[in-house]
Write a structure and sequence with these properties.
InterPro entries: AAA+_ATPase, ABC_transporter-like_ATP-bd, ABC_transporter-like_CS, ABC_transporter_ATP-binding, P-loop_NTPase
Helix content: 25-40%
CATH superfamily of the largest domain: P-loop containing nucleotide triphosphate hydrolases
Oligomer: single chain
Number of helices: 11
CATH architecture of the largest domain: 3-Layer(aba) Sandwich
Number of domains: 2
CATH class of the largest domain: Alpha Beta
Pfam family, one: ABC_tran
GO molecular function: ATP binding
Strand content: 25-35%
CATH topology of the largest domain: Rossmann fold
Distance between the termini: 47 Å
Largest sheet: 6 strands, mixed
Shape: elongated
Radius of gyration: 25 Å
Number of strands: 14
Keywords: Antibiotic resistance, ATP-binding, Nucleotide-binding, Transport
Structural class: alpha/beta
Bound molecules: adenosine-5'-triphosphate
Order of helices and strands: EEEHEEHEHHHEHEHEEHEHEEHEH
Subcellular location: Cell membrane
Length: 338
């Protein structure tokens, strides 16, 4: 009987430079006497320089996974590495290469904004001569230069969040973990944080973010992993996940003046059209047709509109329905509230 061999070296055998930015393998976390594990055999790897989104409903195990990776939570079993460093056997080494922006603000209220940054740098062994300069640079980058001497209690939620991101960057981490970075932010602050994330990734920092915001994930993440009940359900680029979704793009048409059966028949024969449904209510004065498309709704739209015009009908409303990452999320994790 042959023994099974693996050709791929494990992260702990790789030199730190060649290892993935983050790897979890068969990770399990069981809290206390809980019968169901919060993380249940999770495996995934994040490439260097990637923005990786970890998505999942409430209680899916995202924060726990990030907690293990950032050395705040002790794993039950499995492997978790950051930049090739095993976080369980070398937590100090791991903390030197990672930055954390936690879900709940945890600024030191006995220090002002700049003091929080400088103290964090000192904790991480950044030379004294560099701390002040770095703090000023990051306050500037995060739009907080005016708030250097402000106590965290007097910052708005969005300003505090930006300060926490600055703090996470003070020791020049290779991997930055952002747990729901834009929850509670106004649209400007959210955009600002998004721009900083994109900038960080461009400068070579790997970013792992958890979010409930599907638009944020689709916009920022190179790849996303969808987890539920502590298990990985899917992992791919947002566009590949959407493309693999069973379901289709749709064109909803509201029209008047057509023989619906004839029109539906003609539409059904068009290339790119996979289905035609009559959704008109019995008492409706206009006809509502839903046209299912093989590819993108935008590509099927011109021939559909031409066929409607040929049938002598008038279109009063058109709506394109493209599947989104949110549809993928709901498809995989269901509609039930946790
Ligand atoms: N300190 C803890 N002690 C016991 N159980 C915990 C603890 N922290 C989390 N859990 C449980 O572990 C499971 C996963 O929680 P976790 O916070 O990792 O989920 P999440 O995906 O981050 O959720 P959310 O999106 O709501 O932040 C949940 O069932 C939660 O109740």
């Amino acid at each position: 009987m042959s023994t099974e061999t693996t050709t791929r070296p494990s992260a702990d055998e790789l030199t730190p430079d060649a290892a993935p930015a983050v790897e979890v393998r068969d990770l399990v976390k069981r809290y206390g006497r809980s019968t169901t594990p919060a993380v249940d055999g999770l495996s995934f790897a994040v490439r260097r320089g990637e923005v990786f989104g970890l998505l999942g409903p409430n209680g899916a195990g995202k924060t726990t996974t990030v907690g293990v990776l950032t050395t705040r939570v002790t794993k039950t079993s499995g492997l978790a590495t950051v930049a090739g460093i095993d976080v369980a056997t070398n937590p100090v080494g791991a903390r030197a290469v990672l930055g954390v922006v936690p879900q709940r603000p945890n600024l030191d209220r006995s220090l002002d904004a700049r003091g929080n940054l400088v103290w964090h740098a000192a904790y991480h062994g950044v030379p004294r001569a560099q701390r002040g300069r770095l703090a000023d640079e990051l306050l500037e980058r995060m739009g907080l230069a005016e708030k250097a001497k402000t106590n965290p209690d007097e910052l708005s939620g969005g300003q505090a969040q930006r300060l926490i991101i600055a703090r996470g960057l003070m020791h020049d981490p290779q991997v930055l973990f952002l747990d729901e970075p834009s929850t509670g932010l106004d649209p400007q602050a959210r955009l600002f944080v998004h721009d900083r994330v994109t900038e960080l990734a461009a400068s070579g920092v790997t970013v792992v973010l958890t979010t409930h915001d599907m638009d944020e994930a689709a916009k920022l993440a190179d790849r996303v992993g969808i987890v539920d009940h502590g298990k990985l359900l899917a992992l791919d680029t947002p566009s590949a996940l959407v493309a693999a979704l069973p379901g289709e793009a749709t064109i909803d048409l509201t029209i008047t003046g057509a023989d619906v059966d004839v029109l539906a028949g003609r539409l059904g024969e068009l290339r790119g059209v996979s289905s035609v449904e009559d959704l008109s209510g019995e008492a409706a004065s206009a006809t509502h047709l839903r046209v299912g498309c093989d590819g993108e709704a935008g590509a099927a739209l011109p021939p559909v509109l031409a066929a409607v015009a040929d049938a002598g009908a008038v279109v009063t409303q058109v709506e394109l329905g493209e599947p989104t990452l949110e549809d993928v999320f709901i498809d995989l994790t269901g509609r039930g509230l946790r």
